[in-house]
Amino acid sequence: MGNSSLASWAPAIIIGVLVLLIIGWAIVVYNRLVTKRNSSTESLQGIDIALENRFDQIKAQADAVAGVVKKEVDLILGSTSLRTGRTIEQLSVSEKTELNTAMDAAQQKIVAEAGKPQGLGSGPGALASLENYPEMKTTQNVELLQRTINETEERLQAARRVYNRAATDYNTSRQVFPTVIIARLLGFGGHDLFELSDQRKRNQYDLEGFLES
């Protein structure tokens, strides 16, 4: 009688063990997804910091550019997603890309102004008044500007690589089977990659012409 009683409970025991295993697996998967999602979100803050530094730098450079160029730069920066009054951190990844493209356009305007000899155009070469060097030559203006551009670009590219790596890892984890089942049920959305726009790829800085003697 004891054996028959145990046999009758066996299916329930097996089902209970399977349920516990599934729950345990779901918890492990959930925790892994949360960890990867948080890592991707944290990495995005590096891009935010790099964009904020670049935005502040361009604004400072624009303040050193007189006349029409400064107005054009302010218009370019003002036409981005920041016009909504949100901070860079509050923008979506696509809006951050839009902002970076706008900053590229603004920087191109400043580079063009920096290449003008003093006394020509709308005002003195960019960065001359900013650095308080009234006798600074055009080539010195552009060389200084080139260094600052390269430094900000390197910081942004480093932050972009770290974020894209973390976002790709998270996206891959949530898309593989059977993890995708848990991800969909619990609402784990994908993270967009921070990609350079086609316009950004086309508008590479051409400083060689300015540096010719």
From TrEMBL:
It holds the Pfam family LemA. Keywords: Coiled coil, Membrane, Transmembrane, Transmembrane helix. The keyword NAD does not apply. The keyword Coiled coil applies. Its main location: membrane. It is found in: Membrane. Residues 135-169 form a coiled coil. It is a single-pass membrane protein. InterPro entries: LemA-like_dom_sf (IPR023353), MamQ_LemA (IPR007156). GO terms for cellular component: membrane. The chain crosses the membrane at residues 6-30. It comes from the Bacteria. Belongs to the LemA family. This is LemA family protein. The lineage of its organism: Bacteria, Bacillati, Actinomycetota, Actinomycetes, Micrococcales.
